[in-house]
Amino acid sequence: GVLLLLIVNFFRDPPRRLNRGAGQYLSPADGKIVEITRLEYDEFIGGPAVRIGMFLTILNVHVNRMPSASRVLSLKYNPGRFLSATKPESALVNECMWIGCEETAPGQRRYAMRQISGGLARRIVCDVRGGEAFEQGQKFGMIKLGSRAEVIVPDEAGLELVVPLGKWVKAGRDVLCRFR
Q1: Is 151 in contact with 37 (CB distance < 8 Å)?
Q2: Based on CB atoms within 10 Å of each CB, which residue in 1, 58, 107, 146 is the most buried?
Q3: How far apart are CA 167 and CA 11, in angstroms?
Q4: How far, in Å, are 55, 93, 152, 172 from residue 82 at the CA level?
Q5: Residue 74 annotated among the catalytic residues of the structure
Q6: Which of 27, 70, 117, 147 is catalytic?
Q7: What is the 3-state secondary structure (H, E, C) of the chain?
């Protein structure tokens, strides 16, 4: 009975009051912010970037949502290991789906997301295709059981990081960063 309740709890998809707004990026997943790293160069973005990573426990909602109104430019699946997502190195070596996007709003900034599997269920669901457009906060997939999610945004003038390290966030509701 307890196992059944955990499984039902895991696959829940509660209604969300979305926090849509131009120039802001929403959290793509429920979880705890475990990484905010400035990158000297990101190939897809074509310059400096900031990577914001979150860890999803088995108790979090695992439905993923688009951080910004955007169009998918490319996808890359990377088979890998299945270390526990609590370990920082899991972001480097675990199975993942990389999604390269471009905002549909004027300015058309490029950003990327990564869905990273964990050590338990080892299953990524990514319901997107290249060229497909999404509204901000729209559902696009799921990472099953303990996992990680990342958003990589351009580190350019006007970037304001809103979320601090250690904060618990909700997909489609909490703002990670905004551009002024």
Answers
A1: no
A2: 146
A3: 23
A4: 14, 8, 22, 27
A5: no
A6: 147
A7: CHHHHHHHHHCCCCCCCCCCCCCEEECCCCEEEEEEEEEEEECCCCEEEEEEEEEECCCCCCEEECCCCEEEEEEEEECCECCCCCCCCHHHHECEEEEEEEECCCCCCEEEEEEECCCCCCEEEECCCCCCEECCCCEEEEEECCEEEEEEEECCCCEEECCCCCCEECCCCCEEEEEC
- How far is 107 from 129, CA to CA, in rounded Å? 22
CA dist 18 to 49, 114, 117, 136, Å?
A: 25, 21, 25, 8
Is residue 99 a contact partner of residue 105, using CB atoms and an 8 Å limit? no
The model's pLDDT over 26-77, given as tens digits with 9 standing for 90+, comes to 999 999 999 999 999 999 999 999 999 999 887 888 899 999 999 999 999 9
- Judging by DSSP bridges, how do beta strands 123-126 and 139-144 pair with one another? antiparallel
Task: Provide the terminal-to-terminal Cα distance of the chain, rounded to the nearest Å.
Answer: 50
Which whole-number Å values give the CA distances from 103 to 18, 40, 63, 137, in the listed order? 18, 22, 21, 13
For 17-34, write each residue's pLDDT tens digit: 899 998 999 999 999 999
